[in-house]
Amino acid sequence: MQNKLPRGIYALIDEGVRPELSLEEKARLVLEGGVRVVQLRMKTTPDREALAVVRRVLARARPLGAKLIVNDRVDLALAGGADGVHLGDEDLPPDEARRLLGPEALVGVTTRTLGGIREAQALGADHVGLGPVFATRTKHVPHALLGPEGLGAIASQSPLPIVGIAGITLERVPEVVRAGAWCVAVASDLFAGDDLVSRARAFVRAFSGAA
Question: Which of 50, 73, 156, 182 would bridge with 161, disulfide CB 3.0–4.6 Å?
Answer without folding.
Answer: 182
